[in-house]
């Protein structure tokens, strides 16, 4: 019986959950704004107390690795590393955009077989972090920063239906007006949606290095600063 602590802090939503054999046994979330520095630690402490009070040993810690808010990811990653190290359990790093896809794949049975998924994390202006996946969650195009125009996703829209969702999708509705574009609302990366991805990585023993693993956005930040020391990112 596997018990995994899940931490998701990549957007303004802060959420923590415990899963046991893929089912939710504890969940807390804060959706009113970025208060991760306070909420994340409290939620993690409550989750660990719940597991201890029910004599459930922790088997792994899963964390959302980005892209997303620089500050939010730093908080979530630091918390996940600390728990993994302190509890002597492995760390599982999950791509944030794949986490966004889980409720779409599980909750939209009517989706066309040839549909593609484009989860979006909001950046600045008309910029988003996005990737393109098929319904098997195989990568059609890897994560990258996009400046959204009517032509940005035309290659895939011309082939068939494309579902856009995430906190970066709403601002694209007036720009992407292709007949094959579908927009889903209310989709955010949440800890409770990490369960199937984390369980799969646990079964495969696919773990991140507790000492050296870093969130995606931190790597992007470091690369940007290396290219242009005068440029800063306001995430």
**Number of DSSP strands?**
10
Distance between the termini: 38 Å
Strand order of the largest sheet: 3-2-1-4-5
CA-based gyration radius: 18 Å
**Structural category:** alpha/beta
Average the pLDDT over all residues and give the rounded result. 91
Count of individual helical segments: 6
Q: Specify the helix fraction band.
A: 25-40%
Any descriptors?
five-stranded mixed sheet, single chain, 6 helices, 235 residues, 10 strands
Topology readout:
Elements: E1 3-8, E2 14-20, E3 23-30, H1 36-53, E4 60-64, H2 70-87, E5 91-94, H3 96-107, E6 116-122, E7 127-133, E8 139-147, H4 154-157, E9 162-165, E10 181-183, H5 195-203, H6 216-227
Describe, in short, the structure shown.
This protein has helices at 36-53, 70-87, 96-107, 154-157, 195-203, 216-227; strands at 3-8, 14-20, 23-30, 60-64, 91-94, 116-122, 127-133, 139-147, 162-165, 181-183. With 235 residues, it is α/β, with parallel strands linked by helices.
